[in-house]
Specification:
With 410 residues, this protein is α+β, with helices and mostly antiparallel strands. The chain has 2 domains: 29-161 and 328-409, no CATH class; 177-319, no CATH class. Helices cover 47% and strands 14% of the residues. The chain is built from 16 helices and 10 strands. It has helices spanning 15-27, 31-37, 39-48, 96-113, 118-134, 144-147, 150-161, 164-172, 190-199, 203-210, 276-281, 286-297, 299-302, 334-353, 358-368, 380-409; strands spanning 60-62, 71-75, 81-85, 92-94, 185-186, 221-229, 240-247, 257-264, 305-310, 313-319. Strands 5-6-7-8-10-9 form a 6-stranded antiparallel sheet, with helices on both faces. The longest helix has 30 residues, at 380-409. The chain is globular. The two termini are 27 Å apart.
């Protein structure tokens, strides 16, 4: 039997080409993966539609890239777990309708990937509207637990039970106090390692690791190991690091380890409102913008994040907890698809609603209910948007696959 070819660890200057190749491979796996990786295509569509085609909601923080993979279980400092928005790279103060449409597109492509009929997609869009509007209904006493699809309930139970050891095995494939280099983790150059060590000597950064631990001292936080983290489509051209920290010198016994994610904050491509008052509320620094957006949309995550400068680049730093998981929506039955659409839209709706006062909530609900179809319990602007986007993204996916196949063959 021929020996398996050993993966050659790349140098700093080799990363870009390998990341580009990895992104293209992942985007060719399915139409749903293509939608997740082709965010700019969605923004180009938004830029090209006629003015006033979509409802204009109040100026609030939105996710900006609200697909299903960017939602999942999040834990707070007290250990409670809820499904919330978990990735906020594209967060801006903008039109909340954009998040509804982006989520609808993601769900529609997941339905197509599950071979569900078009009528189910139509029902899913009805469920999106119903779930989103339910988040604004303060008079409703229906338990959130009762609205969770079974798949989400199972994932929540798993998240609550997860331990640091499970996190380590999943994220770094090891429970030893080191990061194994390979296809997922690449070596740092000397300047990167020095910059990371220096970063965690700052008390305001070190307190990320001590904030969730009683009696821990920022002075005793030390970097055990660090590596460049290969993270699919989003890593292309960005800094992304995994860092293992020792808290109070307990790593020798396997205790007090902390896994940190450092991610470069880049300029958001998501459309934003441009009024003067809105511009003043949005930090110019990209990492600060992401942290501020998280504090409004996902407070549990926002309280665990910090912004900083690393080698003169803007970065977001947060501790990864065992409960932080990505929600996967791949193979669905008709009933599961409709329940998932309603529940996830409600999660997004809650993130939006908490930023509005009573008058804004009433006005936005009234605007959403405008132009509802007699044959479909969803506004015509949403259904028309989904039809156009699914069509253009499926065509784009096939063309991407053709180019990928030709490139692989050459």
């Amino acid at each position: 039997m021929p020996k398996k070819k050993k993966f050659k660890l790349p140098r700093l200057n080799d990363r870009q080409a390998l990341l580009f190749e990895r992104r293209n491979m992942k985007m060719a796996e399915s139409a749903h993966a293509y939608v997740r990786g082709s965010t700019t295509k969605f923004y180009e569509w938004l830029d090209g539609i006629e003015g006033h085609t979509l409802p204009e909601g109040p100026a609030i923080w939105i996710c900006g890239d609200c697909h299903t993979g960017n939602l999942g279980p999040i834990a707070n400092a007290d250990g409670r777990v809820e499904i919330q928005i978990r990735d906020l790279d594209q967060t801006v103060i903008g039109n909340p309708a954009h998040d509804i449409i982006r989520l609808g597109l993601s769900l529609a492509t997941a339905a197509r990937g599950s071979d569900l009929p078009g009528v189910t997609t139509a029902r899913m869009m009805e469920a999106v509207v119903q779930g989103y509007e339910h988040a604004f209904d303060r008079s409703s006493h229906r338990s959130v637990r009762d609205t969770k699809p079974e798949e989400v309930r199972v994932m929540m139970k798993e998240a609550v039970r997860r331990t640091w050891q499970q996190l380590a095995i999943e994220r770094i494939e090891d429970i030893e106090p080191s990061i194994p280099l390979g296809k997922r983790f690449w070596p740092l150059d000397k300047t990167e390692r020095i910059a990371i060590d220096t970063l965690f000597r700052q008390r305001e950064i070190a307190d990320i690791a001590t904030a969730l631990r009683k009696d821990a001292d920022e002075e005793n936080v030390t970097v055990i190991d660090a590596a460049y983290w290969v993270k699919g489509c989003s890593s292309l051209g960005r800094l992304r690091y995994a860092v293992l920290l020792d808290i109070d010198g307990g790593a020798v016994e396997g205790d007090d380890l902390c896994l940190i994610d450092i991610k470069e904050g880049v300029k958001a491509a998501a459309p934003r409102y441009t009024a003067a008052d809105v511009t003043k509320r949005m930090p110019r620094d990209n990492a600060e913008r992401i942290v501020e957006g998280a504090r409004h949309l996902t407070p549990w995550l926002g309280e665990r994040m910090r912004s900083a400068r690393l080698n003169d680049r803007s970065v977001v730093i947060r501790e990864l907890l065992p409960q932080d998981m990505k929600l996967t929506v791949e193979q669905l039955t008709q009933e599961e698809a409709i329940k998932a659409a309603s529940y996830l839209a409600m999660v997004v709706g809650k993130a939006h609603a908490r930023q509005m006062d009573a008058a804004q909530r009433r006005a936005w609900l009234s605007e959403l209910r405008r132009a509802k179809s007699k044959s479909l319990d969803a506004p015509s602007w949403l259904w028309k948007s989904i039809v156009e986007l699914v069509s253009s993204h499926e065509a784009g996916y096939l063309e991407h696959c053709r180019r990928y196949a030709l490139g692989s063959a050459s």
